[in-house]
Design a protein that fits this description.
It catalyses: alpha-D-glucose 6-phosphate = beta-D-fructose 6-phosphate. Keywords: Cytoplasm, Gluconeogenesis, Glycolysis, Isomerase. It comes from Amphritea atlantica. The protein has 21 helices and 13 strands. By secondary structure, it is α/β, with parallel strands linked by helices. The strands form 3 sheets. It has a 6-stranded mixed β-sheet, with helices on both faces. The chain has a 5-stranded parallel β-sheet with strand order 6-5-7-8-9, sandwiched between helices. It has a two-stranded antiparallel ribbon with strand order 3-4. α4 crosses α14. The protein is globular and about 75 Å long. The model has no long low-confidence stretch (mean pLDDT 96). Bound molecules: 6-O-phosphono-beta-D-fructofuranose (F6P).
Length: 542
């Protein structure tokens, strides 16, 4: 039986027929305690679901569905290292990466906790050497610029976190700049190479597979630049200027990264779940080893909550189940992520990969085609900027969109910045927008008299996620909460969130087309592809 034919799903469908008729305005009018009923706190975070189109019955029925799908057992399977990634026959143990060293974790008889902490310690030693100026470039210069070359999970998590937490950089490491280069066409790198000094630049080549063409193309360009500008042999350049972070050490060695400059992680760490591993080296370089550990501790706090709290109080479970309600029962297939804090500007891009690469699936774990919706289209932007861009559609367009508003409650005066007044301005806007999206122009006394083009229909559901203040720990907890939300949804939809076969074929087809650009050959494809290749070739000749 497929999940959408199951009793719990059918009960939700019947319930949805009633709730769909209700506007959030009515729900708030009928129950003045919605906030108290539907907001929950754990591990630094507060999630307010009261502006979701739910009732207490909805939540109970969603929990019934979670239990029917054996969610508690599936959560335990994740944490205990069962092979939850069926298509690749391996566990998904990102939670182990943030487990304290004194908690062993046996997977197939091996305590992976020891390996994890040994790898972290090697990273910390390298980070200290770079911070202390002990790591030197080819002419003895200390490192001033670090460039992380990676893409997808080997870029988005470290980039997001470095930008979110840069203010936590301890004084003594402030004069190292961290850069991120990911674009396959080399534009990011080319722009950077014009204004950094080769002798004081260190490249971190981050790639789980060490075979991603985007990353290797950029790494090759960086290495040629160093060899050309220094006039030194490749081997010497690799020793002083390249660190490789990978789960494929042989490939990193083949490329030329010496063993002492390699940091390893494991195939059981999914790329988009890897910022907690040594892939996070750029983060540790930006905020220091101590703060990196605090970020892991914050994520671990969320893990502990997720693993132990009952579903009715479990933040990631509730977030996931309310998402399911919106997608599968209210037919909402667009999800906007709206941080009201400029430091969180890369969170939407990170969540795009986390959610859509994980749950953008249409076959079950057993390979059967699904006949219900899975991951919605997710996008986002810093909220106040998005207000001047796409909020028009949220308020008056024809699409239903669910939104996540994300903001810290407090912004402390720190390191010379005093943004409390501006932070309050942002918070006022955050709450104004979620209020208006929920209640529409009923917030006004005389809305009825306004012409149609000025009306706001409301009833757009949103969750507001707040945390005490932005810190390494609260940030770790926030990101872990989203990871677990994604897992819970995959359990309900009976899909594998840990593979990404949908990105493979494009790589193969691109490889076969590349010859036609480089060698000006042609082979039969389709009239559009052939026409476009011909156009490029003609431009070259003209
Ligand atoms: O092509 C998709 C993908 O495999 C992502 O899942 C991954 O995060 C990214 O490419 C980068 O992969 P790697 O770290 O192996 O270079």
């Amino acid at each position: 039986m497929t999940v959408n034919n199951s009793p719990a799903w059918q009960a939700l469908s019947a319930h949805a027929n009633k709730v769909r008729e209700k506007h959030l305005t009515e729900m708030f009018a009928e129950d003045s305690e919605r906030y108290d009923k539907f907001s929950f706190r754990a591990a630094h975070c507060l999630t307010d679901f009261s502006k979701q189109r739910i009732t207490s019955t909805t939540l109970q029925l969603l929990i019934d569905l979670a239990e029917q799908q054996k969610l508690p057992q599936r959560i335990e399977a994740l944490f205990s290292g069962e092979k939850v990634n069926l298509s690749e026959n391996r566990p998904a143990l990102h939670t182990a990466l943030r487990q304290p060293a004194d908690q062993p974790l046996l997977v197939e008889g091996v305590d992976i906790s020891e390996e994890i902490h040994a790898s972290l310690e090697k990273m910390e030693t390298l980070v200290d050497q770079i911070h202390n100026g002990q790591w030197r470039g080819y002419d003895g210069s200390p490192i001033k610029n670090v460039v992380n070359i990676g893409v997808g999970g080997s870029d988005l998590g470290p980039l997001m976190t470095c930008r979110a937490l840069s203010m936590f950089a301890p004084e003594h490491i402030r004069d190292i700049d961290i850069h991120f280069v990911s674009s396959m066409d080399g534009s990011h790198l080319a722009g950077l190479l014009t204004h950094i000094d080769p002798a004081s630049t260190l490249f971190i080549v981050s790639s789980k597979s060490f075979s991603t063409i985007d990353t290797l193309a950029n790494a090759n360009t960086a290495r040629e630049w160093l060899v050309d500008t220094s006039g030194l042999p490749l081997e010497l350049i690799s020793q002083h200027h390249f660190i490789g972070i990978t789960a494929s050490p042989e490939k990193a060695a083949d490329w030329g990264i010496p063993e002492k400059n390699q940091l390893h992680f494991w195939d059981w760490t999914g790329g988009r779940y890897s910022m907690w591993s040594v892939i996070g080296m750029a983060i540790a370089l930006q905020i220091g080893n101590k703060n990196f550990r605090q970020m892991l501790a914050g994520a671990h706090q969320m893990d502990t909550h997720f693993r132990s709290a009952p579903p009715a109080e479990n933040l990631p479970v509730l977030m996931a189940m309310i998402g399911i309600w919106n997608i599968n029962f209210l037919d909402i297939h667009a999800h906007a992520v709206l941080p009201y804090d400029g430091r969180l500007e890369h969170v939407p891009a990170y969540l795009e990969q986390l959610e859509m690469e994980s749950n953008g699936k249409s076959v079950t774990l057993n390979g059967e085609k699904l006949n219900y919706a899975t991951c919605p289209i997710l996008w986002g932007e810093v909220g106040p900027n998005a207000q001047h861009a796409f909020y028009q559609l949220l308020h008056q367009g024809t699409e239903s969109v669910m939104c996540d508003f994300i903001a810290p409650a407090l912004r402390y005066q720190d390191q010379g910045e005093d943004l409390q007044a501006q932070h309050q301005l942002a918070l006022a806007n955050c709450l104004a927008q979620s209020r208006l999206l929920a209640l529409g122009d009923s917030v006004l006394d005389d809305a009825d008299t306004a012409p149609a083009h000025k009306r706001y229909r409301g009833n757009q559901p949103s969750t507001t996620i707040m945390f005490d203040t932005l810190s390494p720990a609260s940030f770790g907890a926030l990101i872990a909460m989203y990871e677990h939300k994604v897992y819970v949804q995959s359990v309900i939809w009976e899909i594998n969130p840990f593979d990404q076969w949908g990105v493979e074929l494009g790589k193969q087809v691109a490889t076969s087309l590349l010859d036609q650009f480089t060698e000006q050959t042609s082979s039969a494809t389709d009239s559009s592809t052939e026409g476009l290749i011909r156009y490029v070739q003609q431009q070259r000749r003209e």
